[in-house]
Amino acid sequence: MSLFHFLHNRSSFNPFVVSVTLAFVLLVIGIALLVPHQAETVLNAAKAGVFKNFSWFYILAFSAFFFFLLALSVSSFGNIKLGTNEEEPEFSFWSWIAMLFAAGMGVGLMFFGVAEPLTHYLSPITEGGDGIKQQDALLHTLFHWGVHAWSVYAVIALALAYFAFRYKLPLSLRSCFYPLLKEKTDGKAGDIIDILALVATLFGIITTLGFGATQLGAGLEQLGWIEENTFSMQTVVIFIVMGMAIASAASGIGKGVKILSELNLTFAFALMFFVLATGPTLHLLSAFNDNLGTYLSNLIQLSFKTYSYEQNHTEWFGGWTILYWAWWCSWAPFVGLFIARISR
Fold first, then answer.
1. What's the mean pLDDT in 274-283?
2. How far apart, in whole angstroms, are the C-alpha atoms of residue 297 and residue 301?
3. H or E element, residue 196
């Protein structure tokens, strides 16, 4: 049996989807390496055009996802199992939560959880006294990393899990479109859907790897382990992280991914309790309640706010909120598929 027939019969590997995706990605990388300045100009212009003309659509879509899931959860449809009626969850609640946060937020949450409030505090988006500026800065951070980010993940995950575990369709993004395309999802229409999902995921991962490598390199430099956080050092960090990720994935979700995710969440909780115990404990606990209430009370307004009447804030709006929404969208195919896989 040839390798092609083996992959076709024994796995979901699709040579056409993978080859087209890799060709496109290599083309973009090649252009960026050969003519970096021109490529940067074109990409920045494309991003600016999308953010300027479709920011309203990002805001409306994410809000629709959130309220759809909220309505679904309190309706009778929320009782449908993502599997057969007799099945029990494959993973414990702790393991499931750990893998959710490791895949969905990961290194970004640790970095921007500190960097973003400080940046907002010093930006024109926060106004008033010192206390009000601090609260506004945390409000926008919670909004960017809160339920709206998880909503876009959950919509994809729900559609994938429902059609994969109830209809026995492939655990692929094309299966989400089965009600619209029916058997066409097995043809070129399905291939195009998977290609777009792969391209979006690859560029989303590139963004996260860049932030993560910069963060880790800066930490190593601060500790004195390296002399300078150079591009070469960040490249080495990326290759090491990718190697660990591949080894973890190869070991299986129930082993490497699960164990690393649980360790990740355990260390995150340990860090949280360390900061809580050694910092201004009473202020942190009081501020947590205050910030949570502020977030919930402003959730509806922020869900639909496009700053159309505050033109002086549109640059900040595009550089933060819309950038985040686009970032979450690029990660949604990968994270949604992973959430679906662990949520049976």
1. 95
2. 9
3. helix 188-223
